[in-house]
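> example.struct
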């Protein structure tokens, strides 16, 4: 019995992702290739790993067992590659970084520019977004995260403490001078879809006019004058067209961390990048607090 590792890995990703399309996206191959690999694994093992149903591939007991062992094999592979990467003393090749999209322009990009000038043989690949990359599975070498802590399994450096405050277009600052009679509109995040209690105490006629699932959209709405938004202080200050308004008092927000897997942390590329990024953030810490 001889089963190709790519085929076993494909079985794992179909089980993990729940569909051929999700597996293909994770593996960087098309739907047809995923189906072909599954068929090849079944032929090599001489057993059915998935039931072909109208709504997709459903793993059999054998399929789940194969996926379980493939996950263990994958973990060992990642362990080895991380450890080798951590011993890499070359300042060349690729460095993968993840960062929140709205932090990239004012803070991350300038550090990348310095790094690129100092180490031109290193290619920086930046994954922008708020999704947490799995550093154990080597989805990134370093991650900038907004968090209370970096996580027990990661190594991290706290780059800045943060506050949040209320920001809006200048028209709302003018309206707040009317006092409690002022009608104040709010743009709020879907997970906290209400006017802050303190804002209602100060301006009883406050109301929600828009609920969003994305901070970039909320910032755009605020700039357009649609209403007040509670956001991290750095973001409000870095956005042209917004001013801080006294709808609420500034509040403590999650810290800014640079994190990495302990195995990868010692590598030359990771060390060189953090030696540029961390001091730049810490030099500008005052921009993150009220």
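> example.seq
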């Amino acid at each position: 019995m001889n089963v190709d590792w790519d085929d076993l890995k494909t079985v794992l990703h179909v089980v993990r992702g729940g569909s051929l399309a999700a597996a293909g996206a994770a593996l960087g191959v098309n739907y047809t290739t995923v189906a072909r690999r599954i068929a090849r694994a079944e032929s090599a093992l001489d057993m059915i790993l998935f039931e072909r149903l109208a709504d997709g591939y459903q793993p059999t007991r054998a399929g789940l067992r194969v996926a379980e062992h493939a996950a263990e094999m994958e973990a060992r592979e990642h362990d080895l590659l991380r450890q080798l990467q951590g011993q890499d003393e070359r300042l060349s090749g690729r460095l993968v970084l993840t960062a929140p999209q709205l932090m990239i322009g004012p803070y991350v990009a300038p550090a990348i520019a310095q790094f690129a000038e100092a180490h031109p043989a290193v290619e920086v690949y930046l994954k922008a977004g708020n999704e947490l990359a799995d550093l154990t599975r080597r989805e990134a070498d370093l991650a900038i995260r907004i968090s209370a802590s970096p996580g027990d399994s990661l190594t991290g450096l706290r780059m800045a403490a943060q506050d949040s405050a209320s920001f809006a277009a200048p028209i709302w600052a003018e309206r707040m001078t009317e006092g409690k009679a002022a009608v104040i509109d709010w743009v709020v995040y879907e997970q906290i879809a209400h006017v802050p209690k303190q804002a209602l105490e100060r301006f009883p006629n406050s109301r929600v006019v828009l609920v969003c699932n994305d901070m970039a959209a909320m910032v755009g709405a605020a700039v357009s004058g649609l209403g007040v938004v509670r956001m991290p202080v750095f973001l409000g200050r870095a956005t042209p067209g917004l001013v801080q308004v006294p709808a609420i008092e500034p509040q403590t927000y999650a810290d800014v961390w640079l994190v990495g897997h302990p195995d990868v942390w010692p590598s030359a590329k990771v060390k060189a990048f953090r030696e540029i990024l961390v001091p730049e953030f810490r030099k500008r810490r005052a921009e993150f607090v009220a």
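> remarks
The chain has a mean pLDDT of 92.
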